[in-house]
Specification:
This protein is mostly helical and 86 residues long. The chain has one domain. Helix 1 packs across helix 2 and helix 2 crosses helix 4. The chain is globular. The relative contact order is 0.13.
Length: 86
């Protein structure tokens, strides 16, 4: 996938989350959407950094980064469950 395709997916996910936060009457929808996406990326980074201690490993690829950015912390949890069962 070219870089502009990745940027388009990330931007559309950000705008979707901002719209959801706006519809739920949050005061700062863009800030909430950015925090939601960055929390997922930080959770993926934490799992990757602690993989030596815990033995739980999620390969960092384009798919896992997009799932963690779009899904947030529940997306990282989904990746952990899929890694556990598959």
């Amino acid at each position: 996938m070219p870089w502009w395709g990745i940027a388009t997916v990330c931007l559309s996910a950000f705008l979707f989350f901002a719209l959801l936060h706006f519809l739920t009457k949050n005061k700062r929808p863009f800030k909430r959407a950015l925090l939601s996406m960055s929390a997922g990326l930080l959770a993926l980074a934490a799992v990757d950094l602690l993989s030596g201690l815990t033995g739980v490993y999620i390969p960092v690829s384009l798919l896992s980064v997009l799932v963690s950015a779009i899904g947030g912390v529940p997306g990282v949890t989904l990746l952990l469950f899929l890694n556990l069962f598959l």
